[in-house]
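Researcher: Let's continue the batch. This sequence belongs to Phosphoribosylglycinamide formyltransferase, and it's 200 residues. Same format as the previous ones, please.
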Amino acid sequence: MKNIAVFASGSGSNFQAIVDVVQAGELDANLSLLVCDRPGAICLERAEMAGIPSFVFKAKDYSSKEDYENEILAELKKHQVEFIVLAGYMRLIGSTLLREFEGRIVNIHPSLLPDFPGKDAIGQALVARAKWSGVTIHFVDEGMDTGPIIVQERVRLDKNETRKSLQEKIHKIEHKLYPSILQMLLTQGGVTNDKKTRAY
Ligand code: GAR
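Model: Same format as before. Here are the structure tokens for Phosphoribosylglycinamide formyltransferase:
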């Protein structure tokens, strides 16, 4: 079984979904570490409740991304982490981590990339009055939500869609899709075709 680390910045509902499947024996992985860039974030409480070690840092305490990523790297090595799962981690991954974990970092994003990359994808979809949005899981490269796409799942926006209702729809998809794709990536090294074009 591979040792994985989840990186998160906020509430960590996706982190929790991963904790739940690991604890239920439905994801063949050891959840070895939570990395969080916001002291006080709810995801840290979730990690504590689940007995998962966490590493928390503040980017502004370091002089560069390389500096804090070197520290993260040391933690990842200490916990023998082999695969990184970004789940609401609101920072770009730099070359220090990308070099060490090439092809072994995935991210989940709340839109159908390349639409609405970056921050507040849900707000962007609402402002654009999009008819469809969704969820993308992709490998991470040096760009902002630009790496090779693994899977996407669509969600239809209703006429009176609100931020809250769209976020709920997206979270519902994310909490099922991420664990199932992780299981495929970690155990089969790939994703089967039927997962690639599922419409919600
Ligand atoms: C998720 O919806 C995730 O897709 C998004 O942040 C949310 C975190 O929710 N990620 C991004 O926007 C990355 N660009 P959570 O903290 O409840 O898991």
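Researcher: Any comment?
Model: The chain has a mean pLDDT of 94.
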